[in-house]
Design brief:
heterodimer, A: mainly alpha, two-stranded antiparallel ribbon, flat, B: alpha+beta, six-stranded mixed β-sheet, five-stranded antiparallel β-sheet, elongated
Chain lengths: 343, 349
């Protein structure tokens, strides 16, 4: 009669032991410790509550100070400025109203026009298309670099960063030169009937996106590379082993793993691309008037700083909405498990 | 290959090089349907490369792989009825346990109720029920391994490949998992091929094993046969402690530095080496005049808990005996070398 009982007990014991071993290998069970009253354990150390608060404040202090000086103060200034008025000589009149915002959404001296909203929408579109183009190009590029030998890899990364050494204005002028009517690209396009022979390849969409992509590709490729470099290739093989198609391998094995780098790349590409004015100004022509150009105009020729400030805030708002949408997409796709593998 | 009703896996003259490194130099293997087969060898012997070729993750430079009589050499991994348990388990971190296990079925567009049923079956079989909603990073090493097993087995592959699946577990858990794995394979009767460098593991789980070295198969057989009748010095030493003794043939016997012995199967050479496991040498204090008995002196005694190892003069010969024995350096002992346990090794290197 005793035997089955014993058997049961052993089994339970075995299970407990195995579970303990599992727990142990996870490192989840810290050694039990007696904490004296009034004290708090924090990351393995025993502290007084007051000491912890001082420690926390001193650790957070510099960050808060930084945000205050470089974010809160200028942003407040911008908001205040956007509520002021332009004087007749371009000076700032501190008369507060929402006039600039009314102008922004199109109400002017001669009634309502959609011009400003079109510019805003166009900026969004150009930023979006540039980001997508960079993304599509960056994946094969980073996979190519990551699979080279270490020596070649260093060189390719170096080449990817070389453009940062010259100013974007200089690089854009270089494109003007390359696309000029006397050189083969424009002549070839003319020969193929894509453009009027003897004319340059700018201004236009092609030149604009060429300039935009060449400017922003490194912004997308470098963070993405940092993810691709650490890729666990076994996951790709596991997907193939489990009958996944090429598309499934990408969406199930590559995309989740590269999402951290992708997110950074999208943000650092999309945000400045939307506000770009140099490239669109030189390569895009009048059809590519973006919010960046408009802002530049207000602070430059028009000398209308308050309206410029309102435009800046509109751009910021647009950027934030874009990022929020992106985050939501990331969360939806990540099933709430967060980005990347948590340890 | 012929005469069998059910064809298993056949590997024929498979070669593979990576740059100037020859990983496989013409491997022939036959794995029977329903057996637990192990590829055993030190790191760099080509066992993982061979596994990857069977999985379809690598193409051989030459040679063929047949599965169930069909040539699958060039068939991509996604089209083979072969699934793999990867060394790091390779669970998808963004998918929960149910989705991980269901991955292969969903990729082949199995209907959802069927997927649910089969996943639940496998999760229960591996003691994972209740963990469906967890994510891989919330599991212990042992649980992750079982999820990887379930994810592969749920597809009912013709062959399950296991690439050193125990190496990420701590030693404590490993012994238990090895026995579980063996039991599992016996229960479901599917063909398993395991890659490992751990000879104990290979012994525990395998029906048959292949010892590999430098891209070649050195010996294939049941663990007991390979252990007690190693073909050469490498196999003898890789599968555990072995005494390697220089010898020459003299008529029907072999002569060594400390005596002459009868062998149950005569060596093919005139001068060569013998192998005998330390625990196969029998020990007694009383001398005996029979053949295969020799006298020796204990040089060193090493207590190992479950056994007592003696290094002897003349030597170097190691004897493994009961831990209860109390022998000290300098003691005289008599040894019996059973003729069936003395193995003449192949000369070829």
């Amino acid at each position: 009669m005793n035997k089955p009982d014993d058997q049961g007990r052993f089994e339970a014991e075995n299970r407990r032991e195995a579970e303990a071993a599992d727990e142990y290998s996870r490192g989840l069970t810290p050694p039990e410790e007696e904490v004296p009253p009034g004290l708090i354990t924090w990351y393995g150390g025993i502290h007084r509550a007051f000491d912890l608060r001082v420690k926390g404040a001193s650790l957070m202090g510099p960050g808060i100070f930084w945000l205050l000086i470089f974010l809160a103060v200028p942003a407040t200034g911008l908001i205040v400025l956007s509520l002021a008025q332009r004087g007749s000589f371009g000076e700032i009149q501190w008369v507060f109203s929402l006039e600039n915002y009314k102008r922004l959404i199109g109400y002017g001296l001669f009634g309502w026009t959609p011009d400003h909203l079109i510019i805003l929408g166009r900026s969004l579109l150009v930023g979006l298309i540039t980001t997508i183009l960079c993304l599509v190009l960056a994946y094969p590029l980073t996979f190519y670099i990551a699979t080279r030998s270490p020596k070649v890899r260093t060189w390719l990364l170096f080449l990817l960063m070389v453009p940062f050494w010259t100013n974007v204005v200089v690089r854009t002028y270089a494109w003007l030169l390359i696309l000029s009517p006397q050189l083969p690209p424009a002549q070839l396009a003319g020969f193929m009937g894509l453009i009027q022979p003897g004319t340059p390849l700018y201004p236009g969409s092609f030149a604009t996106y060429l300039g935009m992509v060449s400017t922003f590709l490194p912004f997308m490729a470098l963070p993405l590379y940092s993810s691709v470099e650490r890729l666990n290739w076994e996951l790709l093989e596991a997907a193939r082993d489990l009958y996944a198609s090429r598309i499934q391998v990408f969406t199930q094995a590559i995309l989740p793993q590269t999402r951290p780098g992708l997110t950074v790349g999208v943000i650092v590409t999309f945000v400045p691309a939307m506000a770009m004015f140099v490239v669109t100004d030189l390569l895009g022509g009048s059809r590519y008037m973006l919010i960046g150009n408009l802002i530049q105009q207000q602070f430059g020729q028009s000398r209308d700083w308050p309206f410029g400030a309102a435009l800046c805030l509109a751009l910021m708002l647009l950027t934030m909405i874009g990022l929020m949408l992106y985050r939501r997409w990331g969360d939806l796709d990540g099933n709430g498990s967060g980005h990347g593998e948590r340890k | 290959m012929t005469g069998q009703i059910e064809l298993g896996l056949l590997v024929a003259q498979v070669q593979k090089s990576f740059g100037s490194h020859k990983a496989l130099k013409g491997v022939d293997l036959e794995v029977r349907k329903g057996e637990f087969f192990t590829l055993l060898g030190p790191s760099g012997c080509g066992k993982t490369t061979l596994l990857r070729i069977i999985a379809g993750l690598e193409l051989p430079d030459s040679g063929h792989v047949f599965l169930g009589g069909k040539d699958i050499t060039r068939l991509p991994a996604a089209k083979r009825q072969v699934n793999t348990v990867f060394q790091s388990y390779a669970l998808f971190p963004h998918l929960n346990i149910f989705e991980n296990v269901a991955f292969g079925l969903k990729a082949r567009q199995v209907s959802l109720p069927e997927v649910r049923k089969r996943v639940a079956e496998k999760l229960e079989m591996l003691g994972l029920d209740g963990l469906e909603k967890r994510y891989p990073h919330q599991l212990s090493g042992g649980q992750k391994q079982r999820v990887a097993l379930a994810r592969a087995l749920v597809n009912e592959p013709d062959i399950l490949l296991l690439d050193e699946p125990m190496s990420a577990l701590d030693a404590h858990l490993r012994a238990q998992v090895q026995e579980d794995l063996r039991r599992l394979q016996r229960t479901i009767g599917q063909t398993f091929i395991l890659v490992t460098h751990d000879q104990d593991e290979a012994m525990v789980v395998s029906d048959r094993l292949a010892v590999m070295k430098d891209g070649l198969v050195e010996q294939v057989g049941a663990p007991r046969d390979v252990y007690s009748k190693p073909r050469n010095k490498f196999v003898a030493e890789f599968l555990g402690a072995a005494n390697i003794i220089q010898a020459r043939r003299d008529g029907g016997r072999v002569v060594t530095d400390f005596g002459s012995f009868d062998l149950s199967s005569a060596p093919q050479w005139d001068e060569g080496t013998l192998a005998i496991r330390p625990e196969h040498i029998q020990l007694s204090d009383a001398p005996n005049g029979d053949p295969n008995w020799v006298q020796a002196k204990v040089r060193e005694a090493i207590y190992r808990g479950q056994s007592l190892d003696l290094w002897l003069d003349p030597g170097p010969v190691r004897v493994r005996t009961h831990a209860k024995g109390r022998l000290a350096p300098g003691d005289q002992v008599s040894l019996f070398f059973p003729p069936e346990d003395l193995v003449a090794l192949d000369k070829a290197e």
